[in-house]
Amino acid sequence: MIIPDSKTINMPHNWKPRADQWELWSYLDGGLMRGQKGMKAVEVAHRRFGKDAIALRFMSKAAFKNTGTYWFMLPEYAQARKTVWDAINPHTGRNILTEAFPYAVREDTRQNDMFIRLVGKEKGEGSTVQLVGSDNFNAIVGSPPIGIVFNEYSLANPRAWAYLSPILEENGGWAIFIGTPRGNNHLKRVYDYAVAHKAEGWFAQILRADQTYVFTEKQLDRIREQFIGEWGETEGLMLFEQEYMCSFQGIVPGAYYAKQMGEARKQGRITKVPWVPSLEVYTFWDLGVDDSMSIWFLQVTGTQFRFIDYYENSGMGLAHYAKVLKDKPYVYGDHFMPHDASVREMTNDEIAKSRKEVAEGLGIRPILVVKRARDTTAVMSGIEAARNLIPQCWFDDEKCWQGISGLEGYRADYDEEKKKLGNHPVKDWTSHPADAFRTFSVGYKRRVTESPRESVTSMMARRGAVGIM
Predict the structure, then answer these.
(1) E strands in 402-466
(2) Is 323:431 a contact under the CB 8 Å cutoff?
(3) What is the distance between the alpha carbons of residues 152 and 182, in angstroms, rounded to a whole number?
(4) Is 449 exposed, middle or buried (0-12, 13-18, 19+ CB in 10 A)?
(5) Which residues contact 354 (CB under 8 A, 6 or more apart)?
(6) Boundaries of every domain in the chain
C-alpha cells in the first residue's frame, strides 16, 4: 500500500515477513485487503520471534486502509513506554515504533500519552494509534478502537478483552493476541477458543523456537544450559520449555502458588464444580473502588473447599455487588471481608459509615471482618496459609477461570538486573483475586452452630430470600 506524502512510502515500511512469519501475516493482510470484518488471531510464539514487529506492521497498514482508532495494548501502561514507545531494535539501532510509523506519515506525535495521529486526506482526519495498558482499559477516553493488539496477553488483565470484545463485535474491528505462555492461564484459554472456532474465522498458531529461523540448535542448547545454571535443573528446564518451546505447563518465575495450582490441575481439581443447592455459599472479598473488587464463592463439604464461582468488577459501588449476589440463586452463609471494611468513609448520609455498615444496609449479611494486616510478614503468612489450604480446594474451571488465572499468576517482583526475586508481591491485576483468596485462607472458620441437616427452606426463612435480606 503506497502512502503519498513528501515522500512515497510503502506500508508496511521497509519490512517483509520472514518465511516462518508468513502464515500469520497472510491471514491478517489477506483479510484486510479482502475487507474482512472481525478478524481474530492468536499467535503463541517463542521469545525473539518478532511478534511485536508483525503486529505493528499490520497495524500500520490497517490504519491507512481503514481510518479509525487503533490500540497497541501492553499489560501495564508504564510498561508500554519502556518496551515499545522508547524501545530500540537491537538489529537496526532504531526505535521500533518509528520503524513501523515513520515520521513522514505522522501528522502529530504526543509523548505524554504515547499517541500518534497519521496523515489523512484532510488535517485531523487520519487514523490514530495509541499505546495503552490493560491495567486502565476502562478509563481510556476517545473514539472506540477498531483494531487492538493485546501484547504479552498472558500477563495482561483478562477483563480487558471481556470489556472490549463487544465494542469490536459491534464495529467489525479486529484483535490480535500475541504472547509467550505463562502457565496454563487466559492465553491458553483464548488459544483453545481460537482453535475450536477456526471455522468462524479465528486464526491460531503456536511456533516453538525449533520451528523457526531465529535460533540455531547450538544457541538453544546454550540458552537451556543458562536457564538451568540460573534457576536449577527442574525450574530451569520448565522455564526454557515455556519461553522457547511454548509449553503451557511451565511456571511463572516467583509465582507463589505455582506448585499448588499445578498439582490441582494434575489431580483434576480444576474442573466442573457444581453448585449444591442444599449447602450454604460463603463469600470472600477484596475491596476496592477504582481498583477491582473481587469475590470468591465457596461451598464446604467434608474436608473439601469447593469454589463454585468468582466475580470481579471495578469502579462500582457496593449496591452493584449486592445486586450481583442477589441475582445468583445461592443461599448465603457468612460474608468475609478484609479489615478495611471497617474503615469509615463519607457517604450520602450525614454520618460517615464503614463499608461493612453500607453493605449490611444493602442486605449483605452477616459480614465477618477479617483482621488481615498488610505488612510484609503478615502478607507472607497469609500466602503460606493459602498454600496449605489449596490442596483441599476444588475450582470450577468455567465460572472461576479469572480467579484461577490470578492465583496462577500471583508472583513476587523480580529484579531483571540482579536476577533476584524480591520480597513483595507484584501489584497488578493478579493481586485482586489473590487478596480475596487470602481473605479466605486467613479468615475462614467453619461454622458449627448450625445443624448440617438444616434444610434450604429453613435457611431461607432464617436469612431471607436467596441469603440477602
Answers:
(1) 412-415, 420-425
(2) no
(3) 9
(4) exposed
(5) 341, 342, 343, 344, 345
(6) 2-211, 270-467
pLDDT at 126: 95
**Tens of pLDDT, residues 194-230:** 999 999 999 999 999 999 999 999 999 999 999 999 8
Instruction: Find the DSSP H helices in 87-216.
Output: 96-100, 159-171, 186-196
Residue 117 confidence (pLDDT) above 80? yes
Measured on CA atoms in the order 19, 21, 26, 32, is the torsion positive or negative? negative
Q: How far is residue 55's CA from residue 202's CA, in Å, rounded to a whole number? A: 16
Q: How confident is the model at residue 231 (pLDDT cuts 50, 70, 90)?
A: confident
Going by C-alpha positions, the residue among 173, 166, 134, 135 that lies closest to residue 150 is 134
pLDDT at 344: 60
Q: Where are the alpha helices (DSSP H) in 67-130?
A: 77-80, 96-100
Among residues 115, 2, 127, 6, which one has the least CA distance to residue 59?
127
DSSP 8-33: EEESSTT----GGGHHHHHHHHHHHH
CATH class for the domain made up of 270-467: alpha beta
Q: Does domain 2-211 have CATH number 1.10.10.10?
A: no
Q: What integer is the mean pLDDT of 417-435?
A: 83
- Give, rounded to a whole angstrom, the gap between the first and last alpha carbons of the chain: 63
Which strands make up the sheet holding 115-118, listed edge to edge? 106-110, 115-118, 128-133, 69-74, 145-151, 174-179, 40-45, 202-207
pLDDT of 88 higher than 70? yes
Name the grid cell of 302.
467434608
The identity of residue 349, as a single letter, is D
**What is the rounded CA–CA span in Å between residue 208 and residue 7?**
39
Residue 109 three-state SS: strand
DSSP letters spanning 304-354: EEEEEEEEEEES--HHHHHHHHHHS-PPEEEEEEEGGGGSEE--SSSS-EE
How far apart are the C-alpha atoms of 129 and 321, rounded to whole Å? 35
What whole-number distance in Å separates Cα of residue 312 and Cα of residue 296? 9
Q: What is the pLDDT of residues 453-464, one digit of tens each?
A: 444 444 444 444
Q: List Cα–Cα distances, 240 to 50, 260, 463, in angstroms.
A: 18, 21, 53
Q: What is the largest CA-CA distance in the chain?
A: 82
Contacts of 198 (CB under 8 A, 6+ apart): 204
- Residue linked to cell 504472547: 179
The answer to whether 414 touches 253, Cβ cutoff 8 Å, is: yes
**Residue 466: per-residue pLDDT:** 40
